[in-house]
Amino acid sequence: MAAARPSRARALLQQSVSARLQVRPPESGSEAQWVEIQRGLVIYICFFKGADEDLVPKIVDTLLNVKLSENENGEFVSVLDLPGDVLIIPQATLGGKPKGRRMQYHANIEKEKGLELYSQFVTLCEKELAANAKCMEAGVLVKHGTYGNRQVTPDADDPLCSL
Predict the structure, then answer these.
(1) Is the peptide bond before 83 cis (omega within 30 degrees of 0)?
(2) pLDDT tens digits for range 70-112
(3) Measured between alpha carbons, how far is 87 from 13 in angstroms, rounded to an integer?
(4) What are the helix (H) ranges across 92-138?
(5) For residues 142 and 86, is the Cβ–Cβ distance under 8 A?
(6) Residue ranges of E strands in the chain
(7) Distance from C-alpha of 134 to C-alpha of 56, rounded to nearest angstrom
(8) Cβ atoms < 10 Å from Cβ of 77
């Protein structure tokens, strides 16, 4: 029997009626900067060591096509079929493992490579939604946080998360 292949990424999906994320805190003379979406999907993403460019299209396809949202008929549909907005948040804490009373993040990818994969992930999500007729007609948005920076957790009106 073949050994299990180690995970190369982890995502947490949160259905959302609306969500917003502070991407830049207020500074002297300027207000905080926020990105926000309406009904759709919040995607928290973390890449692990061993992740590469070949992984990104597979993850995007899976996450955008998973049937988590209920439409007006009570049927479960993907964010593409809803259609709904997408908020993408880099979340390094998804890579944590408890050791004693502390968390360790040794499995997380190096910052530079993580930024590269995160940027590809965001770009591919934007392309997939732009190529979808329902999404184009509905004017859906893809918003995202900034990789490697501390951000304020989004306000989300629906508590259902799926890992």
Answers:
(1) yes
(2) 888 999 999 999 999 999 999 988 988 889 999 898 999 999 9
(3) 10
(4) 111-131, 133-138
(5) yes
(6) 9-16, 19-24, 33-37, 40-47, 69-70, 76-77, 85-90, 97-99, 102-104, 142-144, 152-156, 161-162
(7) 23
(8) 18
